[in-house]
Amino acid sequence: MSTQPGNDRLLRALLREPVDRTPVWIMRQAGRYLPEYRATRAKAGSFMALCTNPELACEVTLQPLARFPLDAAILFSDILVIPHAMGRGLGFEEGEGPRIARPVRNEADVGSLPVPDPDDKLRFVLDAIRLIRRELAGRVPLIGFAGSPWTVATYMVEGGSSRDFVRIKGMLQAEPRTLHALLDKLARATTAYLNAQIAAGVQVVMIFDTWGGALATPDYLEFSLSYMQQILAGLAREPEGRRVPVILFTKGGGIWLTRMAAAGADALGIDSATELSDARRATGDRVALQGNLDPSLLHEPPERIRNEVARVLESYGRGPGHVFNLGHGVMPATNPEHVAAMIAAVHELSPQYHR
Questions:
Q1: Residue 1 maps to a domain
Q2: Angle at the Cα of 345 from the Cα atoms of 339 and 346, rounded to 5 degrees
Q3: Cβ atoms of 122 and 196 closer than 8 Å
Q4: Is residue 347 part of a domain?
Q5: Is residue 71 annotated as a catalytic residue, yes or no?
Q6: Catalytic position from the list 9, 16, 21, 28
Q7: Among the options 78, 209, 266, 271, which is catalytic?
Q8: How far apart are CA 83 and CA 87, in angstroms?
Q9: How many whole angstroms separate alpha carbon 174 and alpha carbon 38?
Q10: Is 316 a residue of the active site?
C-alpha cells in the first residue's frame, strides 16, 4: 500500500508546508445532502447498518470524490461507535438523533465499562478503512476521526442529544471523580481506536469536540482539553516513517485557541464564529488552521458563495497552513451544486495566496 497519496496538498498544508493552492474538504461531505448517499442509506436499511457494513461505508466515503474535486476523503462512521463497542446500546431515531439505551449515570456504571479492543469490537471500521484505501488507490489522503472524550461522554450520560447538558453538568459538579473516571476510560479507548485507524491506513486523524464550547473555561480545560491532550500524547504519529497529522476541533472554542495550539495537535479546526485572521494571530502560526465558511452560506447563490470564499481566504492571508473547510458540517438541505461552486472558488482564488 502506497503511504503517500498522489494529491498530498492536505498533508502538506496540515504540516504547514508550501502548496500550490489551498486544499479543500468539508465536514460531513459524505452525507444526506447527496442523493447518492440517501439511496445507499435506504439500501442499508438503517444508519447503524450503514456504519457497520464496510462495503457500504466505503461506498458512501467515496461518493463525494466521484462528484467533486476534493483534496481528501473522510471515513464514513460516527463518533458514538465507542459507546456502541462498550455495549451501551446505540441507536438512531429518524429526526431525533442518537439514543443510548443504557446511559452512564453513576460510579458503578462507569466501573462496568470495558475499554474495547478496536481489532475486535470495532473491526468493521478498520475493515472499511482498508477497503477505502484500496479503492482510493493513492488519489487523496484518507481522514480518520473520533469524538473527544467530553463530547462522547455527553451522549453517554444524557442518553442522547441535549441542549442544556443538565445531567452531565450535574455529574461534573456533584461527582467530578466519577466524570473523570469516565473521561479517562474514554480517552484510553479513543487512543487505542485512533491508533488502530492509523495502523489500518488513515493518513490524517481528527478529534471532534462538538460540545466543548458548552463548558466554562476552567471546566473546558479540566474536563475536555486535558483528555484530548492525553489522546494526542498517546497517538502513533509517525508509523513506518510517515507523519500522521492530527486536527483538533472544538466547536465554540475560539476563546481557547492559544491553549489549544499548545495541546500538541498539528492543526486546529476553526468554527464560523471566529475570524481566521484572529485565529492566526492567537496561535502565532504554531499550528495549521482549518475552516471556516459558515455552512448556511451554501444555501446562497453561487456568486455570493464565491465572494464569501474570497473573504475566508483573505482572512487567513498568505502563506502555508490553511485547509479550506466549513465552520461545521454541511447541512442536509444543501444543494450539491453550491458545494461544487464553493470548491471551484477555492481552486480559482486560492493560488494567489501561495505564490
A1: no
A2: 95
A3: yes
A4: yes
A5: no
A6: 28
A7: 78
A8: 6
A9: 43
A10: no
Backbone angles phi, psi at 289, to 5 degrees: -125, 140
- The active-site residue, picked from 32, 99, 167, 304, is 32
In the residue annotation, 353 being an active-site residue is answered as: no
Element (H, E) at 204: strand 204-209
- Show the cell assigned to 130: 482498508
Whether 88 is catalytic: no
Q: How many domains, in total, are found in the chain? A: 1
Range of the domain at 310: 9-354
Q: Which amino acid is at 195?
A: N
The residue whose grid cell reads 442518537 is 98
Selecting among 9, 16, 41, 105, the annotated active-site residue is 41
- Report which of 144, 135, 11, 1 is spatially closest to residue 65, judged by C-alpha positions: 135
> Cα–Cα distance between 344 and 342 in angstroms, integer?
5
The answer to whether residue 286 is domain-embedded is yes
- CATH number for the domain including 173? 3.20.20.210
Instruction: For CA atoms 154, 159, 160, 164, give the dihedral sign.
Output: negative
Confirm whether 32 is a catalytic residue: yes
Q: What is the C-alpha separation between 245 and 142, in angstroms, rounded?
A: 11
Helices (H), 68-205: 81-85, 107-111, 118-121, 123-136, 149-158, 166-174, 176-200
- The one catalytic residue in 21, 37, 105, 155 is 155
CA distances from 296 to 27, 72, 308, 334 (A): 13, 22, 11, 8
Report if residue 2 sits inside a domain: no
Q: Report residue 316 as a C-alpha cell.
A: 487567513
Give me the tens of pLDDT residue by residue for the chain, a chain 355 residues long. Answer: 446 788 999 999 999 999 999 999 999 999 999 999 999 999 999 999 999 999 999 999 999 999 999 999 999 999 999 999 999 999 987 767 899 999 999 999 999 999 999 999 999 999 999 999 999 999 999 999 999 999 999 999 999 999 999 999 999 999 999 999 999 999 999 999 999 999 999 999 999 999 999 999 999 999 999 999 999 999 999 988 889 999 999 999 999 999 999 999 999 999 999 999 999 999 999 999 999 999 999 999 999 999 999 999 999 999 999 999 999 999 999 999 999 999 999 999 999 999 9
